[in-house]
Amino acid sequence: MDDKYRRAVDAAAIFSETDLEGRITYVNDQFCDVSGYSREELIGQNHRLLNSGQHPTDFFSAMWRTIALGGVWKGEICNRAKDGSLYWVDSTMVPVLDDATGRVDRYLSIRFDISEKRELLHVLQWRVGHDALTGLPNRAYLSDLLDQALAMSRQEDIPLAVCMLDLDGFKAVNDGYGHASGDVLLVEVARRLRDIVRGEDVVARLAGDEFVLVLRHIRDLPQLRAALNRVLGAVSAPYSLHGKDIHVFASIGVTLFPLDNENAETLLRHADQAMYVAKQRGRNRFHLFDVSRDREIKATHQTVQRMRQALTAGELRLHFQPKVNMRLGEVVGFEALLRWDHPQNGMLRARDFLPPVEETDLIIDIGEWVMDQVLLQLHRWQQMGQSWPISVNVAARHFQRADFVERLKQVLARHAHVPPQMLDLEVVESVAVENIHHVTACLQACQALGVQFSLGDFGTGYSSLSYIKRLRTQTIKIDKSFIRDMLDDRDDLALTTAVIGLARAFGRRVIAEGVESVEHGELLLQMGCEIAQGYFIARPMPAEEVPGWVATFVAPAQWRLVTSL
């Protein structure tokens, strides 16, 4: 290289020349300064003297291949100085060609020290992935670490535990001693957690006083319990703040992969759900996520969503089951029963799809839809000259709402042409007595609107004279489970007799459901119960079939001949 160019390069960069074998033939002062070697120690030595061991063999193989073929190589190299420290250089390797032969004669290397830049980059990368207070991996880095741990667990077929830990009592420390003391406590908790887990495990801090543990190689539940008990013990040991012993405890939620075979995000959510269960049950404990229960919840959620679609899409139907006076052979009303006209599964009964929905607010929307449809149907029958009351089952969640009466007023107002007494609301006995004060007040307010009330499933709950007295419903319905077996079961017969007697004593009308034979009707008539419904009389039917059925209905002759006992 021309001397004037070499002086310029020497002033600006770390510069060296090597022969074709990689032996150093020239270095400048900057090279000596950064490497710690004198010029005499370097000249004649192979460049491998500076090898840091941080790069794989093929890294240098590719570099030498490039420059040996006359190409220029650029890249970042980590070298080791004489004192053993590492430094990074941004290198450009240039082959020099012989003017006479045109072949590569030697190599020039121009380098710039980028150690500070690399260190700054490392610090910035560390800060992106770590919690500044505790030095633990943060939420962003945890996601990568958990993904890696899951991949290894799948490969090794070894269970892995994901634990969400929340401190109990930390808020009191923050409030009583200040946030600085709270930070000191968090740092100590982080240290204890790091000390108690194994090297391959992960401890991370999400935010506040929430930590995550990823425990690998958890082979069975006893091993998991032992590990979590060690964690609880470590966290609950006293902390010294301002010369006082401070106590905090941990609530831990844990889920076990692959029993809970989900992705990283879902596992964290499941552990979080389990942690809240642990907190509800008391401090200083852990709770294992219930995978089977979660599947039930998901199935319920899917059912509810599908039912919501069915309501919106107009797939719900009402069928009507007649109530008749057996002695007179007259139709005295109908019960509206919900059906789902499922596109794939056909007409489904309420018991096949409604139970999961009854625990959600969707049952309120469905209940009000039923009332609307019933009032519309009552109006249609009115226009035909018929006045058959219709009873509607009201779900517990719907009836127990504080605004039930107000919402009922709105439904009735939309159908002002229908007399309110044509609507009979049926509440099952167990719901009625569960909150007797609310139900009594609600019942009286609804009756003030003119609406009728029936007490359903009577005999299956908490039947007592005081309840019958306080729940002033117009009608009591005897549960079909007693009617069905009363011909053969003396206990059911005795219960049915007692309910009929109570209803008559309190001046209530009594209806028997579940009449499945002539004999059922005869026995009920003998006991003084004249109103009944059941499959023997008629199955529930669409509204359009009702007029034709009524026109042809004839009660068995035996019923007209029965005399009461």
Q: Your description of this structure?
A:
By secondary structure, this protein is an alpha/beta fold. The chain has 22 helices and 22 strands. The strands form four sheets. An eight-stranded mixed barrel has the order 13-14-16-17-18-19-20-21, surrounded by four helices. Strands 2-1-5-4-3 form a five-stranded antiparallel β-sheet, with helices on both faces. It starts with a helix and ends with a helix.
Task: Describe the SSE topology.
Layout: H1 3-12, E1 14-18, E2 24-27, H2 29-35, H3 39-42, H4 57-68, E3 73-80, E4 86-97, E5 104-113, H5 115-129, H6 139-156, E6 160-168, H7 170-177, H8 179-196, E7 202-207, E8 210-216, H9 221-236, E9 239-241, E10 244-246, E11 249-257, H10 264-280, E12 285-288, H11 291-313, E13 316-325, E14 330-342, E15 346-349, H12 362-383, E16 390-393, H13 396-399, H14 404-414, E17 423-428, H15 429-434, H16 436-448, E18 452-458, H17 465-470, E19 475-478, H18 480-485, H19 490-505, E20 509-513, H20 518-527, E21 531-533, E22 541-542, H21 546-552, H22 557-561
The shape is elongated
Supply the CATH superfamily name of the largest domain: EAL domain
Write the CATH architecture name of the largest domain: Alpha-Beta Barrel
- State the name of the first-level CATH class of the largest domain: Alpha Beta
What structural class do you assign from the helix and strand content? alpha/beta
**Strand segment count:** 22
At the fold tier of CATH, the topology name of the largest domain is TIM Barrel
Radius of gyration, in Å, reads: 42 Å
